[in-house]
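Chain A, query sequence.
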Amino acid sequence: MPERRVPSVSTARRARAARSASRRRQRSVRLTVAVALLCLCTLVVLGALLIGALWATSTASVLALVSGWASLRIMLNEVAQTRREAACDRAVQAQAYRVIVSERAADHESFAASMTERVRAREREIHELHGTIRLTEALAAAASERVRTESMRTVQLQARVDDLTRELEDERTDADSLASWEGTDAPTVVNLLDWEERRQA
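Chain A, predicted structure.
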C-alpha cells in the first residue's frame, strides 16, 4: 500500500489561501450574474407592465420565472461549492492537526521513555546508596566491636603487666633482703644443725 503523504501545516495554509482567493473571484462572478439576471427580470417585468399587452406580460412572466430559477440555481451551486470547500478545508485542517497530534504523541512518548529511564537510573542509584550505607554501617559495627575487644584486651594486658611488675618488685625486694642477710655474720645452716644436735644431747 503506497504511503500517503500528509501535507504540512504551512503548505495547507498556502493552498487554502490560494483556494480562498479563487473562490472569492468565482463567488463574485456568480453573484454578479445572479444579480444581473434578477435586474434584467425586474426591468422586463416593469416594461411589460408599462406596455400592458398580454404577450409582453406573458413573456416577462416566463422570463422572470426562468431568470429566478437560474439565479436560485446559481446561488444553490455557490452554497454547495462553499460547503464542499469548507469541508475540504476542515479535512485538511483535521489532517494537519492529526499530524501535529501524532508528532506531539511521539514527543510525549520519547519524553516519557527518557523520564522513565531517568527514574529507573535514580532508583538504581538510591538502591546502590542504600547498599553502601548498610555495608558502611556493618563495617562501622565490626570496627566498633574490634575496638571494644582490643580495649578489653589492652585492659587485661595492662592488668597482667601490673601483676608482673608487682611480682618483679617482690622478687627484687626478696633478692635484696636475701643479699643483705647473706652479708651479715648470721649462723649458717651447718651451725644451726650443730646447735640443734647439741641441744638435743
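The helical segments are 9-51, 54-182, 189-200. Residues 9-109 form one domain.
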